[in-house]
Amino acid sequence: MKRMFFILILFIFIMGLVSAEEINISEMNIEQKVAQMVIVSGDKFDSRFLDLGVGGIFLTKQKSKEDYKKLISKYQTNSKIKLFVATDMEGYWNPFDDFYKSKNFAQINNGEEAYALGKEHGNILKELGFNIDFSPVVEVRNSVWPGRSFTGSNEEVKEKIKSYIKGLQEQEILATAKHYPGGSMIKNPHIFKVRAKIYPQDLELFDFAIKNKVDAIMVGHSIVYGAMDSKGKQSSVSGEIIMDLRDKFNGLIITDAITMMGLRWSYLFSFNRKVYVDAINAGNDIILDVWKYSGYKKVKKRINNVIKAIEKGEISEERIDESLKRILEKKGYKVVE
Fold first, then answer.
1. How far apart are the C-alpha atoms of 267 and 135, rounded to whole Å?
2. Contact (Cβ atoms closer than 8 angstroms) between residue 221 and residue 194
3. What is the CATH number of the domain that holds 241?
4. 69-105 pLDDT per residue, tens
5. Cα angle, residue 139 at apex, residues 134 and 142 outer, rounded to 5°
6. How many structural domains compose the chain?
7. What is the C-alpha to C-alpha distance for residues 146 and 284, in angstroms, rounded to an integer?
């Protein structure tokens, strides 16, 4: 018995000496760096995205557990740098509807149930090979998708947010609070350009998620005024909004899906040329480009336009490196320069 105890202690000690895998970012070219800032749709395997070096894939359309496992394994095995593997597991939109049924957030009555749901979601995500969930929604003003947000008093909602995050993270799944700073569910941003007044109570819920160590925050496409002012731009491309968030949050900042019409209406003739550039200059770490028609050629074109902006001095490489470090460290790497 003593011998087994000694072996266990020795094993723990040795494991403690093993450092995380290192990545020297000075050895990465600028295309590789920028590509790490992009998450793309991965439901149809395309090895060209891996050659490009994208930072992650977003999956929603596989039919079985085995389909998800095989596809994710294929991506991770063939990627030089570990990928973020993401989905929206909120209970309202369920990417696993063919083999798993989930409660939605409005059906959760208290913190205990929220913790159980987070743990349940985390379990299935981990089993399939996912490592980040774009959940929980921490907005409560919701006139578009009943069931997508927690309900109750301010304190009850806070308890549910805290408990869901805890349940998810205990299964080693990164949690994402969305959609900062609020207002993304008073009108459908997939279709409309949304303008919303932000109240202190909206920001309070995000601050509470930050206090409870949420891993990432997704920024919505609402044009906001009131307690925060995006200066007439969508929040996702507003430096005023994102830099204020960065002052209080050191985790990952992610755009909502950039191909939503709520953002595209402002880029009718300049989308490929400007949208990545504006999102990066605003302070985002990750660009979510997951529309089924955003294939390899379009993503590469948008990345190339970022590279051109760097060459022109419109974006500094140091700005890219700031986000790259956060991304790689969140993936578990030790970053050296």
1. 27
2. yes
3. 3.20.20.300
4. 999 999 999 999 999 999 999 888 899 999 999 999 9
5. 110
6. 1
7. 28
